[in-house]
Amino acid sequence: MSLDPSQMRPPLTSDDWRLVGLDIDGTLMHWGGSISDAVVEAVEKVRMCRTHVVLATGRTIIGTMPVAERLGIRRGWAVCANGAVTVRLNPASPGGYDIIEKVTFDPTAALELIREEMPDAFFAVEDLGVGFRVNREFPMGELDGRQIVVDSFDDLSTHEVTRVVIRKPDADVSHFDALVRQIGLSDVTYAVGYSAWLDLTPAGVSKASALESLRRQLGVYPDHTVAVGDGYNDVDMLRWAGTSAAMGNAPDAVREVAQQVLGSVDEDGVLPLLESLIDPDRLAMM
C-alpha cells in the first residue's frame, strides 16, 4: 500500500512551515484576563519562524478578536466555538475577519432533552458575530457579545446554530458528563468545563477537526503540528498534534493525553514551549 504523502513524517527543514494551535483561557491568558508581555513577544517570534500560530478556543469570534489583537496577530487563522467556526484574520474586512468555515446543527433535540433533566438551567445558542440568544441572562462576563433574551424557549431552536451552551450553577462536572451519556446525545459533540458548564457542537466537530482542515489547506506535515491546552475541550486537539503539551493547571485527564506537561498559566508555563519553537537562524534572516 502506498503512503499518502501528507502522512509522511520528514524532519523539519528551513523551508517547512509549522502549525501551532494555542488555547486561550488557562493557556495563554491568566485567570485575571491578562496575557503577559513575555508571551506576546514569544508568540510574535514564533510567527516569524515560518509558523502558523492559530488561536484554537471555545470563545466566540467576538471574544477571540481582542486576544488576536493583543498578540499582534492581524493576519492568519483562528478556530472559534470549539471548532465549529474558522475565521481568516483580515484587517481589510469588517470586524477584521472573514468566516471561511462554519458547521451548524439543529439544536432542538439537545435543548429539549437537557431541559427535561435540568429545567432551571441557563441555555444559550450562539448568534454568530453578535453574541447569544438566551432563555435568561447569564452572569456578567460569562458570554461574549450581546445577550438577546428570547420570548419563549422554543425560540432558541428556530434555526441551525454552531453552538449550544448550558450552565447550571448547582450541578457539578461529573453530573453533566453522566447526564449527556444518559440522554444519548449521539448527534452532537460535547465538552464539559471546569464548572457546571456544557458546550455542544455539531457531530464530529472539535478544535482538532478544524485544525486538521487548516493543516491540509496550508500543506503542513502532520508531524510539524503543535498544540497546547488546559481544558477538556482540548483533549482531541492534543491527541491530534504531532507535539502536544498540557498546562500544569489542566485536570489529570487532560494532562494524561499530552506528551508533556508545562508549568501553570499563572507562571507563563507556555513560554518554554514557545521559546523552543523560535529558530535564531530564521529570525536573523528577517
Descriptive overview:
The structure is a single chain. The chain is α/β, with parallel strands linked by helices and 286 residues long. It is globular and about 60 Å long. The longest helix is centred in the first third of the chain and has 12 residues, at 37-48. The chain folds into two domains: 17-103 and 206-284, Rossmann fold; 108-202, Hypothetical Protein, Haloacid Dehalogenase-like Hydrolase, Chain: A, domain 2. The protein has an eight-stranded mixed sheet with strand order 5-4-3-2-1-12-13-14, sandwiched between helices. It has a six-stranded mixed sheet with strand order 8-7-6-9-11-10, with helices on one face. 27% of the residues lie in helices and 23% in strands.
Brief summary:
The protein has 286 residues and is α/β, with parallel strands linked by helices.
Topology as H/E string? Answer: EHEHEEEHEEEEHEEHEHEHEHH
Gap between N and C termini: 42 Å
The tally of beta strands, per DSSP, is 14
Strand content: 15-25%
Provide the domain count. Answer: 2
- Could you give me the name of the CATH homologous superfamily of the largest domain? HAD superfamily/HAD-like
Instruction: Specify the oligomeric state.
Output: single chain
